[in-house]
Amino acid sequence: MKCLKCNAELDNDAKVCGNCGTPIANKEESIEELKQKADKYNENEDYEKAFPLYLKLAQQGDAEAQDNLGWMYYWGGWISKDRQKAKEWLKKAFHGYEKLAEQGNADAQYRLGEMYDDGAAIPEDPKKAKECFEKAFHMYEKLAEQGNADAQDNLGDMYRNGEGVKKDYQKSEECYQKAAPLYQKLAEQGNVKAQRNLGFMYKLGRGVTEDPQKAIYWFEKAARQGDGDAQEALGEMYRLGDVGIDKDPQKAIYWLEKWARQAGVRAQVRIATIYQNEMYIPKIIKKLFTGMKKRRRREMQRRNTN
Hints:
Helix content is 70%, strand content 0%. The chain is mostly helical and 306 residues long. Helix 3 (63-75) packs antiparallel against helix 4 and helix 8 packs across helix 9 (192-204).
């Protein structure tokens, strides 16, 4: 068995590569479990853990993993920036999305529109981008008619941004209003994504009356289930305050630290930067920078040995 990152030989029961420190995916995990784990690491900006999982999935032909891997190489950061590798993986993702779109996958159809629009993997083509967005819009419409909350929410975004349809804020709001009760039902059943999305709807006043208290309620529900976006949003609301929400440095620190611990170095740097002039939390800054320095030393050691 070899490490997917540095190609070093590994013991069969290895959990971490002894050469570069990369976590090793559990061979018994299903493809869906690997995708969920990789997506969670990626959403929380823990690219060190997301990369080997995406690489394993990408090598097995998963289009979303190829897409994410391509952008990791495109922007660099935890791995060295490599635009050639980025383009290779993004092209593979593009062809994978084409096949999925032919099978009626609305998300894949939408992603094709974005790829024609941004031109990172294929030449920019506004006409084809528009066609893909229009097809995705109609696919989402059918899913929304079946009671799919995400599809209804996506329609709201497309009306709001003018993607595949004429920009229309009134229709956008109508779509959000239809999505809100669907998310409410799922959120009450404990669905963490619905809880987080409902929190943002109440925070932004989309589909519901803006209500910071209800936003806090649903963000906290999702945050307690480990959702990084909800933890970050909750921490920021307590840090900045809102209508009916007093600033609470202690709660802000609690949730932002939870988010940073799973989100990795970039989140830790961001928090330290936010709070560098706020003297009531010198301990957290010291802790965050200490962790960052340790990771940086390991990264430098890894690069020196390769």
